[in-house]
Structures are given as C-alpha cells and as structure tokens.
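ok new one. same drill as before - structure tokens go in, u give me an amino acid for every spot. 526 of them this time. try not to just spam alanines like last time pls lmao
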C-alpha cells in the first residue's frame, strides 16, 4: 500500500498537470508565431493604404491650383512634384510585390514537402490562394503606376504576369488585369462589363485612371466630366484624412520627444525629483509591493489563464460558431464580424478573474497595493497621458526597425478589413469597445496588476517591468508585434510602478489603442 500522504499525491498530480499545460502552451506559442511568419505585416498594407491616399490627393494641384488645399497638401507630403510621388508609390508597390512573390515561392516549397498531412496541405493551399489573390490586386495597381511613369510595356507585362499566375482559376483581380491590358494595348481591346469590373476591384486614384482611359476609348466625354467632379470631392476628403493620420506620429511623436528631453534635463540637474530615480520625491506615498507567493504560483496563474484562453479561442467558440453557422453570415456582415471580435475576446480573457480568485485565495487578504484602482487621486491622469506621449516616439522607432528586419512578414490583423472597409458606425463602435475598454481593463489587470507585481518577488523592478512587457507582447501571438509591444508594455509597466494605480496604465493603453483605431478609420474609410 502506498504510504505517501494524500495531499502529497494531489500536489504531484497538480505539478504534473501544470508541467503538461506549460509544455502545450509553449508549443502553441511557437507554432502560432511560426504561422504568423507567412502572413504579411499589416503595417505593409497600411503603408500602401497611405500611399493610395496620397495619390488621391495629388490631384489637388490639378483640381484647385494655388489654393489653400494645395498648401496643406504640400505640408503633409513634402515639396516633391506629383511625378516624384508616382515614382515613390511605384517603388513601394514593386517592393511589396517582390516580397509577396518570394513568400509565394516559400509556400510552394513547403507544399512540396512529402511529410505534410492532409490538414497541413489544405492550410497551405488556402494560404497560397490568398497570396495569389493579393499579388493580383497589387499587380493591377502597380501596372497603373507604371503607366503614369511612362512605362507602358512594363505595365502590360505586369498585367500579363497576373494571367499566367492565376491560370484557369481566374479571380476578379485577374479579370481586371485583362481589362487594363486591353485598354493600353495597340489596338485597344474592350471587354464587356469593363466599367462594372473596374469599379468593383479598384478605388480612388486607380479607379479614376482606369475609368478615364475606358471612357476615352468609348468616346464618353460626359463621363469624364463626372469623374473630374468626383475627384474634386475626393481630394478634400483625402487631405483631411491625411491630416488626421499624420497628427498622431507628428504631434504625439513631437510632444513625446520634448517630454523625453525634459526628463533627461530633470535627470541631469534635478535627479531627486526624476521619476527614474528610485527614491524620487514624486513617488506615490510608500506602498510596499509585498508578494506573499512564489514564482510557482505566478507561473500557475499565467499558464492556467493562457490554457483557458486557447481552449476558448481555438476550440469552444469555433465549435459554437460553426454549430450556429455564424461564420457564413459574418463574411458579408461587418457588425457580425465586430461582435465575433468583442464577444470571443471577453469570453476568452474573463476566465482570468476566477483563476486569480482561486489561486490567490490562500493569501487573502492581500497586502495593500494589489490591483489598486483609485479614482480619487487624479495623478493617474497625468501618468497615463504622459506615458502615452512618452511611448509614441519609442514605439514608432522600434516599429520601423522591426518592419525592416522582418521584411514585411510576421503579421496578420483580422480587425483591419472591418476598420478600413466598413461604412457602418456600429461595427466600428463595437471594435472600439473591444480595443479601448475591454482590452485595457483585462490586460492591465493581468500583466501589470498581477504579473509585474508578482515578478518583483524574484527580480529587480526593471527586470520585472521588462519581462512582463515581453510576456504582454508574446500573448498577442504575432511576430511583428513582439518588439513594439514589448516596448509599449515596458512603458505601461513603468507608469504603473511609479503611479501604483492601474488606472494610469489602463488610460495609457486606452489612448494607444484609440489613437491607432481612429488613424485606421481615417486611413481606410470610404
């Protein structure tokens, strides 16, 4: 008969279960990050959206010469000529197109691996088809930019490559490539339903160029006049949107740089009042960060939460949505898509609360300062707003470095189509609720309120801030986000450490997500 006490047996089972869950969590993170490498960075797509918006605004000098709008446009995009902008836009598109083709070659090599099972082959096939469609869409626009720079032969070759790439599986973008090739060929070849197809697959500056050529070929001068009138409206809208988009990096980054200069001067000449001094006089009245549990309990909470998160997002919710056939409807309904972001997010992170409650029950009542949310002292407003401006230049810099290092790979954001394509305010409000309310509350409560606080038991404060910031980034399961979000997480950690109030880091988080949210709406709004 086994003489080992019952409580020791239960501890062994608990330790074994925690070890298994830890291993599965680590493997899931590795495989998910590896899969994200095959997706283009959303920043690359955003750069192209901004390029398209600038192109739309290049018509300002033609539509309203010597106007104040022209002056505003020059401030926003510089003193270059329209032709310079076309050349820069073509270079950007050709770079993205080249990277996309390289990625398609990589997917082809993976598909030829004989060790793949049927599910992996099916997944790769879907990724290849999506990549081909993306290449076709980019090629349609690249060809029009080549036309604008005088390279008609190059444009026709670009559109011919789309036909070769798609073969028999012709997409809408493939049909558009054929139409564009016909319009700029000698003699001109007109296709039926050309106007409808162009309007379906092209927008902004690209649509105007293609339709102008079509109407010239059809000798429909009245339609060209309508296009010019529409362009006048679009120019003003494009300039307004560019002003909104540039206000965040320009104003936020500028204020952030000035703030860092002020902090540097304060550190040099008034170190005792600097927030970077551990004995700073502006520190919150002494609140001990006493941690009554060890690293094992901290690890247990994080693993259990991540396991619950994965089970909800990867198994439970997909099965429910499949059973209710919600996914089919979501393809055409942005409101449903937004709900399928908000509801799964809340359901997947909310298990954190009972897990924390159960795991920390033996240590209650907790020492003073744990999970502090205090509205009465308004210093949290200053810390949150100041932390936001301090984070902007840091995250912008590391984002550029990360993007160059990863060569446009390592990202995929399901929210982007809703923000850039939807014209309905309800799905956008639902997404804002997710990004600016739910995410700051739950993520700050876990990563700053619990994890950072707990890590100070075993690490110096700066080490705890850095490690909690890295885990915060890792939880987003996206290679392209790891470095920028780690920096953002460390700024939020510092703000929480100094303010001793979760409201400060929650406010910073809310401001950051809201700024990105409204910039995306301005960038992709119809």
């Amino acid at each position: 008969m086994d003489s080992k006490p019952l409580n020791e047996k239960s501890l062994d089972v608990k330790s074994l279960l925690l070890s298994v869950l830890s291993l599965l969590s680590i493997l899931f993170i590795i495989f998910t990050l590896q899969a994200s490498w095959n997706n283009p960075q959303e920043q690359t797509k955003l750069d192209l959206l901004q390029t398209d918006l600038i192109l739309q605004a290049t018509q300002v000098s033609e539509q309203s010469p010597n106007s104040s709008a022209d002056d505003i446009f020059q401030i926003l995009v510089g003193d270059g000529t329209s032709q310079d902008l076309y050349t820069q836009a073509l270079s950007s598109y050709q770079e993205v197109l080249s990277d996309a083709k390289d990625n398609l070659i990589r997917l082809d090599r993976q598909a030829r691996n004989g060790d793949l099972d049927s599910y992996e082959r099916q997944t790769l096939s879907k990724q290849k088809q999506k990549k081909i469609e993306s290449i076709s869409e980019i090629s349609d626009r690249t060809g029009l930019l080549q036309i604008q720079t005088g390279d008609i032969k190059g444009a026709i070759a670009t559109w011919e490559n789309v036909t070769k790439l798609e073969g028999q599986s012709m997409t809408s973008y493939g049909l558009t490539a054929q139409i564009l090739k016909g319009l700029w060929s000698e003699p001109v070849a007109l296709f039926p339903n050309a106007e409808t197809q162009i309007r379906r697959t092209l927008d902004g500056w690209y649509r105007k160029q293609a339709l102008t050529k079509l109407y010239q070929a059809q000798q429909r001068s009245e339609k060209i006049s309508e296009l010019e009138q529409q362009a006048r409206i679009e120019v003003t809208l494009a300039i307004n949107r560019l002003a909104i988009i540039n206000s965040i990096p320009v104003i936020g980054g500028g204020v952030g740089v000035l703030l860092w200069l002020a902090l540097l001067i304060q550190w040099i000449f008034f170190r005792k009042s600097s927030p970077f001094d551990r004995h700073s006089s502006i520190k919150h009245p002494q609140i001990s960060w006493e941690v009554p549990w060890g690293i094992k309990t901290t690890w247990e909470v994080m693993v259990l939460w991540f396991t619950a998160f994965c089970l909800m997002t990867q198994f439970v919710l997909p099965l429910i949505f499949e059973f209710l056939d919600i996914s089919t409807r979501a393809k055409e309904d942005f409101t449903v898509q937004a709900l399928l972001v908000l509801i799964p997010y809340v359901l997947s992170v909310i298990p954190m609360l009972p897990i924390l409650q159960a795991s920390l029950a033996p240590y209650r009542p907790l020492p003073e300062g744990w999970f502090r949310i205090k509205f009465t002292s308004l210093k949290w407003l200053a810390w949150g707003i100041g932390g936001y401006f301090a984070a902007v230049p840091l995250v912008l810099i590391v984002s550029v470095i990360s993007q160059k290092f990863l060569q446009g790979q390592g990202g995929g954001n399901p929210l982007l189509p809703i923000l850039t394509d939807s014209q309905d305010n309800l799905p956008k409000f639902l997404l804002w609720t997710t990004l600016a309310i739910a995410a700051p509350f739950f993520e700050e409560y876990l990563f700053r309120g619990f994890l950072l606080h707990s890590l100070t038991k075993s690490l110096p404060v700066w080490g705890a801030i850095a490690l909690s910031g890295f885990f915060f980034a890792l939880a987003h399961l996206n290679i392209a986000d790891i470095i920028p979000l780690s920096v953002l997480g460390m700024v939020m950690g510092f703000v929480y450490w100094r303010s001793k109030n979760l409201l400060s880091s929650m406010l910073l988080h809310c401001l950051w997500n809201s700024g990105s949210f409204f910039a995306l709406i301005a960038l992709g709004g119809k």
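The chain is about 75% helix and 0% strand. and btw The CA atoms of residues 470 and 486 lie 5 Å apart.
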